[in-house]
Design goal:
Chain A: This is RNA polymerase sigma-70 factor, ECF subfamily. Chain A: It holds the Pfam family Sigma70_r2. Chain A: GO terms for molecular function: DNA binding; sigma factor activity. Chain A: It comes from Methylobacterium phyllostachyos. The complex is a heterodimer. By secondary structure, chain A is an all-alpha fold. Chain A is built from eleven helices and no strands. The longest helix of chain A is centred in the C-terminal third of the chain and has 22 residues. Chain B is an alpha+beta fold. Chain B has three domains: 54 residues; 39 residues; 140 residues, 2-Layer Sandwich (Phosphorylase Kinase, domain 1). A seven-stranded antiparallel sheet of chain B has the order 1-2-3-4-7-6-5, sandwiched between helices. Chain B is globular. The chains are: A mainly alpha, B alpha+beta. Chains A and B meet through helix 1, helix 2, helix 3, helix 6 and helix 7 of A and helix 1, helix 3, helix 4 and helix 5 of B.
Amino acid sequence: MTGVTATAPSTTPSTAPSTLARARFSQLVLPRLDEGYRLAHWLTGNPTDAEDVMQEACLRAYRGIEGFAEGNARAWFLTIVRNTGYSWLQRHRPRAVIFAEDLAADARTALETGGVLIQAPETPEAALIARDDAGQLARAIDALPVAFRETLVLREYHGLSYREIAEVTGVPIGTVMSRLGRARQHLLALLAKDR
Amino acid sequence: MSGDDETLLLLSAYADGELSPGEVLAMERRLAAEPGLRDTAERLRGLSGALRETLAQVPVPENLRGHVIGRIGFADPATRRGWLGSWQALAATLLLGLAGGAAIGGGAVYQDRPEDAMLRTAVLAGHLRGLAAPQPFDIASADGHVVKPWFNGRTTIAPDAPDLAEQGFPLVGGRVDIVAGSPVPTLVYRRDRHVISVTVVPASGDAPTDEERRDGSTIERWTQGDLTYWAVSDLNTRDMRRFADLFRSRTGRPG
């Protein structure tokens, strides 16, 4: 995907973006600011940094918009936001990016003690309880390693398919599937423990 | 990886509709045979619902769009030359959005007449009763051409039921509510797991367009022609306004 990794701002006026670029930006990027912002928010963990990431991502998108031919504009823009968010994390929280894939520890304990598979059936009431505990769930999401968190957000909030998530995050589909499964397993175990 | 781990991975991909047809068959066979697995599937569904809500709850700064446009307008020296044109185009888009928001939000300080307060209470009660019932509709259909005629003979109004499925608000049916002693039609839409009730009553006087939050529900009211529409849901305000805007744009000229 061209333009995604372009970072150096062009300083020469000769690269004048055409009216077309502006029109395409209004059409392809502006309607997606909200969902882009929420991805940035879940990546960085706070509103100020999320806005910084969005500003930069939009600039990158604007500069790269003529390189975006046809296809999935949504995945294209989310990829830019995601990569910008990662650069930001690398600059400001390098440790967050070096993630350990040891998520299953908690969940496995729960499995061994019969946690996940021997639970009362989930009911609409339980979903309501979960909603009341939104703060708790949000903290649990925040505590996930970033690779799991972004996969979960792209699936549950953005509703992307595994293939699209694989494209946005640059990993094989099998990895998307395993990250999602394990993130969910982890959250289910956490919620079961607190009940 | 233990057997349970692998089962959960498969189940999670099954819930996402990402298994191959063969794997789906195998999983459905297992689900039919193993109650424990069905419970886990239910819990995964519940988790997804809760996640969707939590993830979408992050408020977006109101001035984000303005900042982005400003940043791009100023940061790129090349835009200076054609600055006016592009700026105006972008600003116009922004202003339109603002004006749209203001038109609805402007009535936030609502001047309820006594009969309006009664209507509002009745409409909200109808919505809540719908949520308390096994299903929030009397007729289940995603087809506006089925729902609209169903009201004939049941209520004096048979409202148009615009198809908003592509915008993420599928029609799920209709029901009859009792407002001020008369049966009135209510269209039922969904947004993810949220139910949106749109109750349609004859317009009386010049009811303003407004919005109110009460007991966790948002109530949007607007009038078009000789009908007043009350939309009620526990959706967030932003989605609710979007729904109201879409609905209005599909049922004729904005009132």
